[in-house]
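User: Run a structure prediction on this.
Assistant: Running it now.
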Amino acid sequence: MKPWEVAVKLLPSASGLVDIEHASDAQFQAWVDSTGLSDLVDDEGNAAWSFDDRIRVINFALRQGRTLQFAGENNSDNSENNSDSELFGDDKSALEAVGE
């Protein structure tokens, strides 16, 4: 998945939903643990999750064939097949920004 696709995915938190880009390190680590991805990181987790680290672990999990569950999604088909038009709908300016 592209970074801008990952950034907007939602995670559950105690205060509601938070997108991956703005989730705290603890919120993201809790999601990693709850989705069974903890085997992809050190035994003690990752105390400081950079945005690049978040993208890497998500994309690695997808390449491994894992199905990821994000909040607010009924279908967890989070494969790399999601098109930019699905992400941005008919917003032509957004599609032009990503080179479509």
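The mean pLDDT is 77.
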